[in-house]
TrEMBL record, chain B:
Species name: Micromonospora zingiberis
GO biological processes: amino acid transport
Family designation: Belongs to the binding-protein-dependent transport system permease family. LivHM subfamily.
InterPro entries: ABC_transp_permease, BCAA_transport_permease
Listed CDD domains: TM_PBP1_LivH_like (cd06582)
Keyword Transmembrane: yes
Residues that span the membrane, as ranges: 6-27, 34-53, 65-89, 101-121, 148-173, 194-217, 229-256, 263-284
Localization of this protein: Cell membrane
Name of the protein described by the UniProt record: Branched-chain amino acid ABC transporter permease
Primary localisation category: membrane
MF-aspect GO terms: transmembrane transporter activity
Keyword Cell membrane set for record: yes
Top-level taxon in the UniProt lineage: Bacteria
Automatic annotation (TrEMBL), chain C:
Recorded topology in the membrane: Multi-pass membrane protein
Keyword Membrane: yes
Protein name per Swiss-Prot or TrEMBL: Branched-chain amino acid ABC transporter permease
InterPro entries with a match to the protein in the record: ABC_transp_permease, LivM-like
Keywords for this protein: Cell membrane, Membrane, Transmembrane, Transmembrane helix
Transmembrane segments: 31-50, 62-83, 95-114, 120-139, 182-210, 244-269, 281-306, 334-356
Cellular location(s): Cell membrane
Molecular function via GO: branched-chain amino acid transmembrane transporter activity
Keyword Transmembrane annotated: yes
Primary localization: membrane
Pfam families xref list: BPD_transp_2
Length: 241, 296, 372
């Protein structure tokens, strides 16, 4: 199968620091591909470069193709309109706006907003539509951040650490939702929680020191405790969580 | 008692002037991160365009409906100026904050010099309807009508901006963009269109301040915008950048403080108290009374 | 927060296939400032007339005074660049510390009757302490908010001076310096040359201090703050303290410039407290080249020169002959300077200092390459 996303020799330099140094990988057209690596290795930088959010003092080189569309160097709003959905780290819901306003913001002229899809996944958002997003719990904010992107049809979703800072029960809920989302749209996921990775991911790309250190089947990676430990610096106890 | 009422109302008149300038500054800063030194120029353009229209534009004049036409012309000129500044000068420097400030600094220097070159450095008498020169007696205090006109105008502008922000699609985009501009673009919205819009709103409000402020003072001069601008900046910081309601509260606080202290204390002491208030607010609450954290 | 680029000293990047001629040039280059300094030192002995550039001979008091003012602003711009170009801080209140030096000296001499040798250090120390205190509050904010807050504090200075609190400042009229407290060698038209040398000495001191600071470990931290403040925070260094040091030092240098300026113009007038003065410092630095050693100095000298000369050029026959819609704006120095400044931001982001390497590249490209 043709990959939905092909990244070649992606390099990002921010304020003189080489954060990514020639990263190449592909994302399968179905299911979840997980981007792994220790803290500060450039996972978030990769997603942000793909969606055109590298800071202005940064420099991006290389290519990234989504289908027949070149991503790098395009303004963010065009990339997103062409079907690249982005759920950022720390959720970034608009705290001063209501839930309904957060969702309404994502509506686009010329396409019908898929509220039924969003509310089927997150009935909570429908019930709380008049509540200010800032007063939602962390888990609810994450649901809103994902729901906001699903208002429109996407060809690929970039999701950055959706379970960060959430209670274990909520982590499971988020993982369930992402599993259902991934049935219809491919996802490139940055995730630290290996239990979630085990549950969702088919392919894995591991970054180390700004380069791709390992690619392959995510389940095979997690099965090899020593390899996981050397690549991600986590113990086997965590892996078998 | 009369003095207190008079000072309150003239203080509110001053506050109205500050608010008209600060509301646009605050929105422009909150959304686009542009510290707009050329905002005083929009005020100057509005004042001079009104002055010019009252004397030269057919249908406009210093009184009655003609005066309304003259002010409308001034506001239109200020709006046009603001839109042109955004499209031609600010937009090519998108997200280069410092360069944008530098360009507005250059524009404020060159623009004021141009006004001065065209109409001279000295203040000129401003055409105004007869009734704005008179006073209205409110609870025994003789309040100048020009000040009351400013207060009414500021309240209407506040209401209009809030309604716009609350009920329109672009209002929603602006409110979201003030919070997190990057995330607005990440939802597929070209936030730069909203930049042009806030410049237009800010330019219109500042031009109105220029026209009505000149009615209040009775004269127009090229430097008028500059001195108002500094207090408008203070109002923006105290109110919290990007918050129109915060600007309104802060404008009232600054206007009243200035008026009362200047009257009961030494002249000029009120201005200093305003800066002291700014320092206190910053020390206690770096993000201002309302709105987002005061960082760039 | 900021994106001020600092074009580094051009001489570092010398292509290997340079001609022998330009190799010699690059070897001589470090001595160029010394040569310019030597010329500046002996300049008052020259009776040369440069019609169109200066009105009188080079050693005439009028020309020397103009040059002295230019030199002081060259130094002021270099000091301001310590904040803007080297640390990335956009202060809109630098006029305050300069004014503290001017009014401090003037008031201490004229009103308190102190001799210059006491008044000058007091004014400088006072200006430095003022900068430290205000910096301590203003640096609680960053970026654009910092700009607004410094502007507001400087406005207090302008109000204090204009309203003449306590009858100290002379209000709108300004305060002429009582010269009885000043050494005879610094008073009178005949001694303008000494003031010129004093201004030159001030400029040399500022350039030296800024050069030493930016070359020191502190200077490297400041450059780090300019490029990315978070990185400095990650290193475990406190950005606030380093910025406060830079802010206070720049304030002290500006106050020292104020002392010299007060002596040159023989008093103080309220326009030096205005925010316009800070804005013109910013224009000088950007026109010259922020973050470079000589750019701000050149920018400051050139700006003040043009500001003075454009007034007389503006009223000259050549400009008057133009149609009114051209001649009127061109007779306003600020219109010309503001427009040039805007164009510079777009087309020469590195300022004058960035022109030199471009010219070098051009010359290298044009000259036939002799190898061997």
């Amino acid at each position: 199968m043709e990959p939905i996303l092909t990244v070649e020799e992606l390099s990002v330099r921010i304020a003189g620091l080489h954060i990514l140094q020639g990263v190449s990988f592909t994302v399968a057209p179905t299911g979840v591909t997980v981007l792994l690596g220790r803290n500060g290795v450039g996972k978030t930088t990769t997603l942000r470069a793909l969606v055109g959010l590298t800071p202005r003092n940064g420099e991006v080189r290389g290519t990234a193709q989504m289908g027949n569309r070149a991503l790098l160097g395009q303004p963010t709003h065009r990339l997103v309109r062409s079907g690249l959905g982005y759920v950022p780290e720390d959720r970034c819901v608009f705290a001063g706006l209501t839930v309904a306003e957060n969702l309404r913001l994502a509506e686009r002229r010329g396409s019908t907003p898929a509220y039924d899809r969003v509310f089927a996944l997150f009935p909570e958002l429908d019930r709380r539509s008049r509540q200010r997003a800032g007063s939602l719990s962390g888990g609810q904010q994450q649901m809103l951040a994902i729901g906001r992107v699903l208002i429109n049809d996407n060809r690929l979703l970039l999701v950055d650490e959706p379970t960060k800072g959430l209670a274990p029960k909520v982590v499971t809920e988020v993982a369930e939702v992402l599993e259902r989302v991934a049935e219809s749209v491919p996802v490139l996921l940055v995730e630290q929680n290996l239990a979630v990775v085990r549950r969702l991911a088919h392919d894995a790309v591991v970054l180390a020191a700004g380069q791709v250190a390992w690619t392959g089947n995510a389940q095979e990676l997690l099965a090899e405790t020593e390899l996981t430990r050397s690549l991600l610096g986590v113990g086997s106890a965590e892996v078998h969580h | 008692m009369d003095a207190v009422i008079l000072l309150t109302l003239t203080g509110l008149g001053l506050a109205a002037l500050y608010f008209l300038v600060a509301s646009g500054l605050s929105l422009v800063f909150g959304l686009a991160d542009v510290l707009n030194f050329a905002h005083g120029l929009f005020l100057g353009v509005g004042a001079y365009a009104t002055w010019w229209a009252a004397g030269n534009l057919p249908g406009a004049g210093p009184d009655g409906l003609g005066f309304v036409v003259a002010v409308a012309f001034g506001v239109a000129a200020g709006t046009l100026m603001a839109v042109l500044v955004e499209l031609v000068l600010i937009r090519p420097l998108y997200s280069r904050t410092i360069e944008q400030v530098l360009v507005t600094v250059g524009l404020s220097l060159a623009g004021v010099a141009l006004l001065q070159a065209t109409w001279g450095a000295d203040a000129r008498p401003f055409p105004r309807p007869e009734w704005t020169r008179q006073v209205t007696t409110i609870l025994g205090a003789q309040v100048p009508n020009g000040g009351l006109l400013l207060i009414v105008a500021a309240v209407l502008v506040l209401g209009a901006i809030l309604a716009f922000l609350q009920w329109t699609r672009y209002g929603l985009i602006i409110r979201a963009g003030v919070e997190n501009r990057e995330m607005v673009t990440a939802l597929g919205i070209d936030v730069r269109k909203a930049f042009t819009l806030v410049f237009a709103i800010g330019g219109a409000a500042a031009a109105l301040a220029g026209a009505l402020g000149s009615v209040y003072f009775g004269t127009v001069s090229p430097q008028q915008g500059g001195s108002l601008l500094i207090f408008a900046f203070i109002v923006v910081v105290i109110g919290g950048m990007g918050s129109v309601v915060g600007s309104a509260y802060a404008a009232v606080a600054v206007g009243l403080l200035q008026q009362f202290v200047n009257y009961y204390g030494t002249s000029g002491l009120g201005d200093i108290c305003v800066v002291a208030l700014l320092a206190v607010v910053l020390l206690l609450r770096p993000q201002g009374i309302a709105g987002k954290v005061a960082t760039a | 927060m900021t994106e001020v680029k600092s074009p580094e000293a051009p001489s570092a990047a010398v292509p290997s296939e340079l001609t022998t001629e330009s190799t010699r040039w690059s070897r001589l280059r470090p001595f160029l400032p010394l040569a310019v300094l030597a010329v500046a030192l002996i300049l008052p002995y020259s009776t040369l007339h440069l019609p169109g550039i200066f009105e009188g001979a080079l050693n005439s008091p009028g020309t020397l005074q103009l040059l002295a003012v230019c030199l002081v602003f060259g130094g002021l711009a270099a000091g301001y660049d310590l904040l803007f170009g080297r640390t990335g801080m956009l202060s809109f209140g630098h006029a305050l510390y300069f004014a503290a030096g001017v009014y401090g000296t003037d008031i201490l001499i004229t009103r308190a009757g102190l001799p210059l040798w006491q008044a000058a250090p007091l004014a400088i120390v006072g200006g430095t302490i003022l900068a430290g205190l205000i910096g301590a509050v203003a640096l609680r904010t960053v970026g654009i908010a910092f700009a607004m807050v410094t502007l507001a504090f400087a406005q207090v200075g302008a109000i204090l001076v204009a309203r003449d609190f306590g009858g100290l400042t002379g209000g709108e009229e300004g305060l002429p310096l009582d010269v009885s407290g000043v050494p005879a060698g610094l008073v009178g038209v005949a001694n303008t040359v000494n003031l010129y040398w004093l201004a030159l000495a001030y400029l040399v001191v500022v350039v030296f201090v800024v050069h030493r600071v930016s070359g020191s470990p502190t200077g490297r931290v400041l450059a780090g703050l300019r490029d990315d403040e978070r990185r400095i925070g990650v290193l475990g260094l406190d950005p606030y303290r380093f910025k406060l040091v830079a802010f206070t030092l720049a304030g002290g240098l500006a106050a020292a410039g104020g002392v010299v300026y007060c002596l040159i113009v023989g008093g103080a007038s309220p326009h030096i407290t205005s925010s316009e003065l800070t804005l013109s410092l910013l224009v000088m630095v950007v026109l010259g080249g922020p973050g470079t050693r000589w750019g701000p100095v050149l920018g400051g000298i050139l700006y003040m020169y043009l500001d003075h000369r454009l007034v007389s050029v503006g009223s000259s026959g050549a400009i008057d002959a133009l149609p009114a819609f051209l001649s009127r704006p061109l007779s306003q120095p600020l219109f010309v300077l503001g427009t040039v400044f805007i164009l510079a931001v777009y087309f020469f982001p590195g300022g004058l200092a960035s022109l030199a390497p471009r010219l070098t590249l051009l010359r290298n490209a044009l000259s036939p390459r002799r190898r061997g």
